[in-house]
Amino acid sequence: MANQATTDSPYDVMLKGFINTYVEPVTNWTRAFSPTMYFGCNVEDISTEQHVLNSVGSYGSQLNRIIDVVSLLLPTLKTMKLTKGQQEDIRKFERLAKEADEASSTYRGRSPRGITLDEVDEFVERMNKLASTDPEQYREAVARIRTGTAEPAGNKTA
Predict the structure, then answer these.
(1) Between the CA of residue 40 and those of 24, 37, 147, what are the distances in Å?
(2) Structural domain of residue 66, as residue ranges?
(3) What is the pTM of this model?
(4) For residue 62, is it within any domain?
(5) What is the tally of structural domains in the chain?
């Protein structure tokens, strides 16, 4: 009898060279026209994962809720004595939250979420600089803010 050659699965070939990689591809056929293949170490939890997605919502919506709550806590957190590393972690989180919001908003064709406190602080700093460099333009900007209009104060229409 001749020696039979063994062949690797396509997944073994794709992942050759990865150390300690566990691959057990599983296809979920509950959505026959849009099957989903799962790769990972916890493939035994596929039915649980699918139930959570069907009941609660996508991972993106779940992460958005977490980002919303953490964002609410940031002003308090920033008042605490933080290491440089912790401050950098906050900056990275804020950048992640902003970029995720911008990407989602762009995809959906709407403008991103409202202004952040950091953006308000930056605006106040810029207004203070404008007050000292161009008092007339500063007064005009303040008037527009107070009236809630983008029109110069003298150009109001009835």
Answers:
(1) 7, 10, 57
(2) 58-114
(3) 0.45
(4) yes
(5) 3
